[in-house]
Amino acid sequence: MKNIKYKIAIFFSALLVFSSCQEDDVDAGSIVAPSNIEISVTYVDNGTESPAPGLGSGEVILSATADNALSYHFVIQGQTKLQQSGSVSNIFTTLGTVTYPVTVIAFGAGGASTSKTIDLEVQALYEPPADLIEMLTSNSSRTFRIDTDKPNYFGLGPVGTTRLGEFFPNGGDPNKDGVGMNDDRYIFNIDGTYTHITNGDVFGREGLINEIGGPGDGTPDGADILNYSYADYSGFWTLTAPGGVETLTLSDSAFIGYYIGGDHSYRIFERSANGFSILSTDGNNEFDWNFILVAD
């Protein structure tokens, strides 16, 4: 009799545990679609807000809000930008005043989504100089690599720095052979397409590098991730000059050198017929990172 009572007690205990697990699963899998998407547009010229459709820089900041939204996709000119913050900047480069459809997709719990599309009128007046286009593409296609023969070929400084390697390496050797960067190649084509030859792995900032959607491997080394597995990929490039500074912007999560997230825009620090140096602010807004490239 005691054995029967014991078995019944075990049965009801198991039933309670199973019921509890079922309730947890239902809670964890709740699906909530966002609603009430609102999109605001800010036009930016020379770093300050300007009236629609802008004064010619082509730079726009898009901000989205929605009830029950966890993240947002911005679909701009066929390219998708993922932003959990709900805000993204984009520089439109087609000359003249052009109307673009922009779609915001808001994602909620369980992956449910809601979208909204607006027509965005933007004015762009910048036309890159011929010698810059020739340097970057040879008027057809051109391949670059990190110029490891130069001091400060990879370095960092404070946001807004006016020199290369202000914090690191200060003229020393950055010693970045074999970490997934120095063997990469960057191909710029006259039609605006871009290809990054990774040779199987890349180098990036801990935390930020997962934005590119790789397997999440690599070797942690302080704030760096070395030899993160990542295949060759293609994207697009554009040239603008906000505030008079020649700037190279890559689409989506495309990058040069060390992955730092941010807006994927690289300010051209200096250039010659066979190479150029660039600066970009990371996604944490901590540092400006620099790279020196040379035609391969």
From TrEMBL:
Signal peptide: 1-23
Protein name, per record: Glucan endo-1,3-beta-D-glucosidase
Signal in keyword set: yes
Alphabetical keyword list: Signal
Native organism taxonomy: Bacteria, Pseudomonadati, Bacteroidota, Flavobacteriia, Flavobacteriales
